[in-house]
Design brief:
Oligomer: single chain
Distance between the termini: 38 Å
Number of helices: 9
Order of helices and strands: EHEEEEEHEHEHEHHEEHEHEEH
Helix content: 25-40%
Length: 360
Amino acid sequence: MSKEYVVAVVGATGAVGSRMIKMLEASSLPIKEVKLLATHRSAGKILQFKSQDLTVETTTEQSFEGVDIALFSAGGSVSAKFAPYAVKSGAVVVDNTSNFRMNSDVPLVVPEVNAQALDTHNGIIACPNCSTIQMMVALEPIRQQFGLERIIVSTYQAVSGAGAKAIAETERQIQEVVNDKKDPKDVLAEILPAGGDKKHYPIAFNALPQIDVFTENDYTYEEMKMTKETKKIMADDTIAVSATCVRIPVILAHSESIYIETKTVAPIDEVKAAIANFPGAVLQDDPSQQLYPQAVTAAGHRETFVGRIRKDLDAKKGIHMWVVSDNLLKGAAWNSVQIAETLHERGLVRPTKDLKFDLI
């Protein structure tokens, strides 16, 4: 009989944490007990797991005694502080923040793409950025058959990626424009495009070509995440990657326009077949029926939807496509639970002998 696990969800009351709980309910992971953790402000709240009432506890250094798998989605500072304590207690951590992603001791994993990276984990596994995850699912079947030389991606990202306050700001602004007849440029903006930046702009009836703050090279941190994470996941620094990340007034599910250049000429019918047969990818591509991925139909689903696949008219090895996925499911909660399932399947849920991460 296989071992049953004690699973902790850190950030259980947040948008991603609540979805992690739902994903665990439907998971193939053998679960003995679920432990819900959050800040002291949320402690005492009652949430349900499979119709069982569970009380949310405050996250502390001692919270992980007896825990086998800890799913983190409570912000980078929380992961930085508590993930090493979870590992020291014998748990395997699946972290959904950016804190450990580029750490050389931490695998950055999309299970359909690079599950083998889990084999040498040191107690912490990182989930990539939500936009990177769906792009990897769409491109890996092409990379496997035809290779990849260049990726140019433009994202159209939902406001839920910026958190609950961004959703509330978007809904308020839309109501003010529609109901109060305010000019969109005059509505109050306090969150977007980036909470930590100097200026804020309306998102209602707008598109903001800034997600996160700018780096010294004039790309944003979000854009640089996609570039660096793609190279790490595909274990190939020779792939040219460039991103432009845009926030749009959609609540749920990110969309991406992706242009790639393959190493060998890739017939479109073979590209479509490769995507259709790839785990986690769904081909939605029939221009004659106006069939293509949309945010409103992708929301609530775990898969990544791919369509509008077509050859570039001038570049022999160039291909364009449109990719959509629920950023809180495959882009976060489901990818985390999927990693936990894969760890179980590969016999990798085990304590780490040597702690490679500093206790704070």
